[in-house]
Amino acid sequence: MCSFKNYSDMPGDQPFGFSKSFSDATQLPASPIRPPVRPRISASPVFMPVSSDGQRPPTDLILLTADFMIFYVDEGTLCRSSGNNFGGLLPVQTGTNPRRVVYLSSLLSSEVHVMLQVIYDLPFDLQNPHSVWQGLSGIRHVVRGIDLLPRYGVDLKVCAHSGSNIFKCLLTYAALYPLDIYALAAQKGLHDLAVAASSHLLSINLDTMDPAIAARIGPEYLKMLLGMLENRKSLLGKLLATEPGLHNPTKNCGFSGQGMLKAEWSRAVSSLTWNMHAGITTSQIKETFLNATAKITCRECLKARDERLRAICSEWQLAPAVTEDSRLLDYYPFRKSQPPPWW
Hints:
Among the domains are: about 40-175, Potassium Channel Kv1.1, Chain A; about 230-330, no CATH class. It has helices at about 75-80, 85-90, 110-120, 135-150, 155-160, 165-175, 180-190, 190-200, 210-240, 260-275, 280-290, 300-320; strands spanning about 40-45, 60-65, 70-75, 100-105. By secondary structure, it is mainly α. The termini are far apart. Helix 7 crosses helix 9 (about 210-240) and helix 11 runs antiparallel to helix 12. Strand 2 and strand 3 (about 70-75) form a beta hairpin. It is about 45% helix and about 5% strand.
């Protein structure tokens, strides 16, 4: 009978894969099992349980967003503002939901903030440098929140009237992001906002417009914008086509001498025509003509130049600069003694 003093004396592989350096299981490295992290729930600083201004009704409902922020609201306001019971989420049955909490699993807090501020007509804190509504990211939050309102039965045309806080907010953004606001207004049928935003689009080049933006604007408002731009350029061309009048010949400047003013005026017109756009300013027009005629010394020629330049700038300042009024350009230019027909 063969006997072995220990496993190491056995031929071949060791049974069960044991090793001579076997150590205690408590010494083996192991990752501890950590309990699941509970989400941190925060409360909206705008929609707290008690309204700071006292204008909101008492809160009786909590909205919880996907990023775990809660909003204290009242069910009555949401139901009155919605045409589909806020996407079918209301009214809340107290028996099945005693805490009256509605979980908005597909919405983020930034989106819900916009939606509720539109519904309650609360101001957007655009002056605060730490506000979430600052910069391009802020306008994207606003646009996204506005896009979601129809899903929950909210009529944007009713909420975003010209006296509402969301209208004022979007009008503020229009100075920095006019094309985005114009596209939003056109897409949502907010005509007053589109007209106001169009005044900031006088220098836009439609040839370089993003096709996605053009699709959002749609053919109707694109036509209005194009009509305004082309009509303004056409008007400016007509104003520039009239040259300064001739003055009576003097000892130092006869009819032939006045040809210099005509030549320099034509040179300035060519420069403006080459770089013409609907947003050209009166200061740019003045600077171009003054630089072109800087060598002219005849006082009568300079007087005629200045009179014509004042007339051009005066009528250019009166030219409609918004889409809604582009049809009125058919009446320009009008004589100083004759007011426009719509006055």
